[in-house]
Amino acid sequence: MVVAASCPLGASCPDTVSVTFLGVGGFLMDTASWHDKSWVVGVSLGGESKAYDWNRLRREGVVNDVVGGMPVVLAIATDRVSFFAFARPDASTQFVARGDSLVSRNDAYGLDGRGSSGTLEPVFASQEFWHSWRTFHPSTTTY
After folding, report:
1. Which of 51, 104, 119, 140 has the fewest CB atoms within 10 Å around its CB?
2. How many domains in the chain?
3. How far apart are CA 130 and CA 14, in angstroms?
4. Domain-embedded: residue 13
5. Could you give the CA distance from residue 15 to residue 32 in angstroms, rounded to a whole number?
6. Is residue 70 part of a domain?
């Protein structure tokens, strides 16, 4: 399985950081949501931390939200294991998924953040077990 995490805003980082896992079978993942061994995608920005349920992200494909005052979009690739997080240009910009692209109005971006109107700024996001995320982010909220 490939999971991508993006770099913090303003940091000098590679386009995409990918980590390859041996597969879901190599990890004891709870397929239910919000159990200790359930997977979440966590984002921390502006002094706020938020956890996104992995199962919901896989179902919905795209989440438009705000974390720490910053509009963000989380997206899962069509492989249903790679995920990406970007800052949205503004709170009114809403993205939908079309294949492995993020589309808003007349703008389209690949999951590398590059698009017809420029580049979306990556936001660091990590996939973790729910118990791990809430241990290191005790004041986290959930989506």
Report:
1. 119
2. 1
3. 27
4. yes
5. 32
6. yes
Residue 63, domain member (yes or no): yes
pTM for the whole thing? 0.79
In a domain, 67, yes or no: yes
Show the domain range for 132: 2-137
Residue type, 74: L
Per-residue pLDDT reduced to its tens digit, 27-71: 556 678 999 999 999 999 999 999 999 999 999 999 999 999 999
For residue range 94-124, what is the model confidence (pLDDT) as tens digits?
A: 999 999 999 998 899 999 999 988 999 999 9
How far is CA 127 from its chain centroid? 8
How far is residue 124 from each of residues 13, 59, 67, measured CA to CA in Å? 11, 21, 12
